[in-house]
Amino acid sequence: MSARPPVIRVEDLNVWFDLPGGGELHAVQGVTFELHSGERMGLVGESGCGKTTTILAMMGLLPATASVSGKVLLDGEDILVGGEETISPHRWSDISMVFQGAMNAFNPVKTVGAQIAEPMVLHGMATGKSARSRVAELLELVGIAGDRADRYPHEFSGGMRQRAAIAMALACSPKVLLADEPTTALDVMVQAQILELLVGLSKTLGQELGLTVILVTHDLPVVAQVCDRAAVMYAGEIVEMGGMSEIYHDPRHPYSRMLFAATPDLLGDDEVISIPGAPPRLDREIVGCAFRPRCDSAFEPCSTVRPGRREPVAGHEARCHLNDPSLTELAS
Amino acid sequence: MSDVQAPTIDAPLLEVEDLISQYPVPRGLLGAMMRRPQLTVKAVDGVTFSVAAGEMVALVGESGCGKTTTAQTVIRMVANQGGSIRFDGAEIGELSPGQLRPLRREIQIIYQDPYESLDPRFTVRDTIEEPIRVHSLVPRKEDREAKVREAMERAGLTPPELFIDRYPHELSGGQRQRVAIAAALVLEPKLLIADEPVSMLDVSVRAGILALLDGLRKDGMGVLMITHDLSTAAHFADRIAVMYLGRIVEEGPARDVVRNPQHPYTKALISVVPRRDPDERAFPQILTGETPNPVRVPPGCRFHPRCPVAEARCKETDPELRLLDGVAAGHRAACILLGEGSGTG
Q: Which domain holds residue A159?
């Protein structure tokens, strides 16, 4: 990558949830990644893999039952270190989020414009007239005519409400946008519009530095369509991370390969194959590789030794023993 | 139609012709007092298709296009205001509820959300046994138990002992959907309607459910799958029918419809489907605007206001779904600009 420091770096992030009956659930396990300005990365995985928990932790928005360790460095400064005190100056203004289902979370009795203005007013960035003109500007940015600000949510279609939700997240000109399943409930045509918007924002927002986007989704083709890079999560860990094209053509973790094989492609002829079994429970200690019971390539060390992070190809890392030549030679 | 006719040989299992299904739009007390005209939502507005035994047909389209209403009308949960529904050669569009009862066994439906569609207080056994009880099919308890286990095995819930006494909350999403399928199979239907059967499930288990439906199709069952996912339809269906605003605008062999789309709407829809290979990024032909309100269907071709190639005459002529030249056999589309001058109609 470039010599410029990353705009955001997540370092050894761990999240535990206290369970009601005692015990803990280790939802996010040692997640580490970094992104430069204007990069778009997909955080993909199935439900319960920890992708939403990861970005909520980055925003400091986890409930009190969660304990977090690790660092979230924004332009080199750790925002997690002092808890709410160090996070809140950056939340929404530097790092912002579009929540899953945000399009359905608008207050029905307030105009869309008033709701978009809320974070700005709250952060003392704008009031009154200047807030109104900023709202119009934001709506235009996401492809909605500025004079629609006085309309109520029910007067917007689903796609427009999702655009408005993105506008709201952009209200304080963040550097990093975390988008949680932003197109999941939308039709493909509207999905295409929203994805095009996110790509456009990462390219144009700001004078020279584009918006950095983390797209959280279970939908691999959506990531393939819009992201340069992807991080595949399984059982709380990033099991593979690298260029999207590299992961597709040369997967270094069987889970990524099997996930692609389970995803039908519009024009593909290959058989679509489900992955047997289910993800492990995260409230118990996992011995060996968490994916081993479902893996089609497991070998001897997988049941006992937890695979560490390896980078078999520069910029492409995975947590799988198959990438350790000393182990694969022993096995063969 | 007085009684169910004897089935005709070689007829498709399900033949739907010119089906119309409308909902009245509530106009409120004030509207009624002021005698405002009663508006109707034309949810299904002249739909024609068929499903043969051993065939899977996918009805695809965006939300609000009428695909689910079409399915609900076929099983007569929603009344049709026009057209005919022939099942096994007999017209069922006008049967009374009593006459429909035996038919309910032959056409079964499974729904999108296996978290909502199962009764949380029912064990797997209760859920699957319920339909046989309702239809008073098997009087002896032991026989019912055998039927339940057989349906579970067909639905891939094996071994049955492992699941039969469990409650829905003890099952994964994929297992729940299999329970819903088993409860449909226990009646040995000829036609299975699957309304978005995998959209609530994780990617890794979707293929298993779809393979199960595919297996039922191979065993001779007709399957009508409602989906918004063109990639799934392309992989598992024999034929695809694309709906737009209450009408089928294109229909044909699944491979041919996705590889060689003819209708401008289908072309646009195919172009926005993200591909799995990042090097095959789509060049989306994004349609502006949204699907119009089905209360006010545009005149002429209903797609013309959003159509990138519409001409003046498209505003006047309501195109018929017709066979086309230069495409696979049985591939139809409803666009007057297609196959012009070829002489086929």
A: 103-173
